Amino acid sequence: MTNNRIGTLGSKRLVNSQGTVLLAETSNVSGTKNPYSGMLNPVMVDGQTSVVFSGIPQNFKDLKFVFSDMAHNTSNSTGYRLFFNINGDTTNNRYYTRAGSQVSGGNTSATQWNADNTTAFYWGYVYRPENVGWTAMGELNIPRYSTNLTWNVRQVNGYWYHINQMTTPFLYAGYYYNSADAAKPVTSVTFNLESSVGFRTGSKISLYATS
After folding, report:
1. Nearest Cα to 209, choosing from 64, 14, 34, 84?
2. SS3 assignment for the chain
């Protein structure tokens, strides 16, 4: 169920029954803006090495990024990890990532993976669909993104799935920590791929906020 409402930022916005609004999404045309939030839609063309969501409005509670048809454009069957930074911070020893799956019907961890004390969060792998026949999907949640936190720790969570990487979707969680910068509200998030590999045409990242 969706409803058109007048938002505090001015124009009409499309809001679903959970109070979620689209703030921005990648586009193959530069200079386009979301009509409600006024945010620039980040450019996503073949070979794009950095995707930046900046100027994120601060009048919502939580952020959600949705990834669809994610792929890279290098002519091989190698997977490259998706990295992301908060507020442009690439300082070492500030990001801590965990991923894993669960054994069906139990609480025992089936597969675990981690990247600690790094310069970015490490999310899932992407591949070139022309070589492997599949694309990746996932989500990233940043709760309380607009809040000045009490502790110097900001949490993220989500999931990732690519059939070449895993047999079941992986849950991801992480901490941006070890600095007072981590307690500051999130105003921008930057995505790129390891080894400076470019994104493939058709990759899509959409940013939503919940009230």
Report:
1. 64
2. CEEEEECCCCCEEEEECCCEEEEEECECCCCCECCCCCCECCECCCCCCCEEECCCCCCCCEEEEEEEEECECCCCCCCEEEEEEECCCCCCCCEEEEEEEECCCCCCEEEEEEEEEECCEEEEEECCHHHHCCCEEEEEEECCCCCCCCCCEEEEEEEEECCCCCCCCEEEEEEEECCHHHHCCCCCEEEEEHHHCCECCCCEEEEEEEC
Measure the CA angle with vertex 86, ends 161 and 168; round to 5°: 10
Give the start-to-end residue ranges of the domains of the chain: 19-26+51-210
Nearest to 23 by CA among 37, 4, 6: 37
Cα of 103 vs its chain's centroid, Å: 26
State pTM to two decimals.
0.89
- For 103, the token pair is 């054994």
Q: What is the pLDDT of residues 83-127, one digit of tens each?
A: 999 999 999 999 999 998 765 555 555 567 899 999 999 999 999
As a whole number of angstroms, the distance between CA 123 and CA 36 comes to 29
